[in-house]
Design goal:
Structural class: mainly alpha
Largest sheet: 4 strands, mixed
Number of domains: 3
Radius of gyration: 32 Å
Distance between the termini: 71 Å
Number of strands: 6
Number of helices: 17
């Protein structure tokens, strides 16, 4: 320790003349942080990051790590301390095995240009990617969770995991602090129908699909900046937003009791509360509900299309995109299923013919009933009905055709079972 010299020309403070003056500045300007660092060194028994040093006149000047070396010198009694810290450091010294003979591992560099480049990359922020990238809130929470430390936003993390597990494509981009401010209170959690369990997972008190619809709506609003931390900094802002969700039929009324049930509602047979009387307005082609299947290898693009139709594209904003992607989804899944049942489609075959062939196979192996197959085949004609597959083709090629929201929703209902069978055909 006596070979190390706290740099009197440290860039942190500029020229100070001598080592003790540099030490005095560090304790004066960073009083609390220096004490915290000293406590951590005592707790850990060492420093983890070797100081960067250069040999000068038989000693080693510190170019990076001056705070660490200063705290070590203070713990070893090798420098003067401000009067107000004498007592605290005396207590720390009794718990730390240190002497003037103590040694510490250092990074030794002889070239000043190399030292300057190292210091620059460590202390100039990201420096366009050349420096250190600091952790954002999510990264800090991930680290805390990995090493078993209590996280700052446990309910927000649980909501994020729930959305990710249910296919919400932007779950990792949600502002956790906003989610936390909105639903940290237990009474608000009950309105959503959720509860945080000891293992950090969500306990569902309402229908799973209702919870998904409500939480994905909140996530959408956060991502679109319709809901920001500023909106929920006080209870008035939170109550206003929760009131909007309640009006939309997405959450339970505010007068929810301790069991998670509205005072005006009855409890269902399974103990879960009955959904609000007002049914939320459907915004997406694919309903926001949990589909119990796993995406097979090779369908990543199809999975992305599914997620966009379920969570991203809305009837009121994407009237053209939805029918085009819907048709693409049907075609890609039909061709995928055809390849798995050894009935590959020919390029010149019309989509309706390919769908009919795959549906007939499903019927032959009793995955569809004859009635279900016939109902699907009725959608494959050319009657100019607004509720048939051809309307999706016309949407692509016609200058005027644009399916109504209700017709698209009805088409999805008819095709849903068929598309799910296409996805799982490999396992069948």
């Amino acid at each position: 320790m006596t070979d190390l010299v706290v740099n009197p020309n440290n860039d942190r403070h500029g020229p100070k003349g001598d080592e003790q003056s540099a030490i005095d500045w560090l304790f004066s300007e960073h009083h609390g942080k220096m004490l915290s660092l000293a406590k951590d060194i005592v707790l850990q028994g060492s420093v983890f990051d070797p100081p960067l040093v250069k040999k000068n006149n038989g000693k080693f000047t510190v170019y990076d790590g001056n705070r660490r070396v200063t705290c070590l010198k203070a713990l070893c009694g090798l420098c003067s301390l401000p009067d107000e810290l004498q007592s605290q450091f005396s207590n720390l010294q009794r718990r730390f095995d240190c002497s003037s003979n103590m040694t510490i591992s250092c990074q030794l560099e002889a070239d000043q240009h190399t030292i300057d480049q190292i210091v620059s990359r460590r202390h100039n922020g990201t420096d366009g990617g050349r420096g250190q990238l600091g952790w954002d809130t999510r990264a800090k929470q991930n680290h805390a969770k990995r090493i078993g430390v209590t996280t700052q936003y446990p309910i927000a993390e649980a909501v994020e995991e729930f959305l990710a597990d249910h296919g919400y494509p932007y779950a990792r981009q949600i502002k956790r602090s906003t989610i936390y401010r909105l639903i940290n209170a237990k009474r608000r959690q009950r309105q959503f129908g959720i509860e945080l369990e000891a293992d950090g997972k969500l306990k569902l008190l309402r229908d799973e699909d209702d919870i998904l619809a409500a939480l994905s709506k909140v996530a959408d609003d956060i991502l679109e900046k319709n809901l920001t931390l500023k909106n929920v900094l006080n209870s008035e802002g939170v109550d206003k937003y929760m009131g909007n969700l309640e009006q939309a039929g997405l959450i339970e009324p505010a007068n929810t009791n301790e069991q998670g049930n509205s005072a005006k509602e009855k409890e269902g047979r399974d103990g879960r509360s009955i959904r609000p009387k007002r049914k939320p307005e459907r915004e997406n082609l694919i309903p926001k509900k949990h589909y119990d299947f796993e995406w097979p290898h090779g369908l990543h693009k199809v999975e992305m299309i599914w997620q966009e139709l379920q969570f991203t594209l809305r009837f009121d904003r994407h009237a053209i995109s939805i029918p085009i992607l819907f048709r693409t989804l049907i075609e890609l899944l039909t061709d995928y299923a055809a390849s798995k049942i050894d009935q590959p489609s020919k390029q010149q075959d019309k989509l309706s013919s390919r769908v009919k062939k795959v549906a007939s196979y499903f019927c032959s192996v009793e995955l569809m009933t004859i009635k279900e197959r016939d109902d699907l085949e009725r959608l494959l004609g050319y009657t100019k009905s607004p509720r048939e597959l051809e309307v999706l083709n016309r949407c692509v090629h016609s200058k005027t055709t644009l399916p109504a929201k209700e017709d698209l929703a009805a088409l999805w209902t008819e095709f849903e079972q068929y598309l799910l069978l296409c996805i799982e055909v490999k396992r069948q």
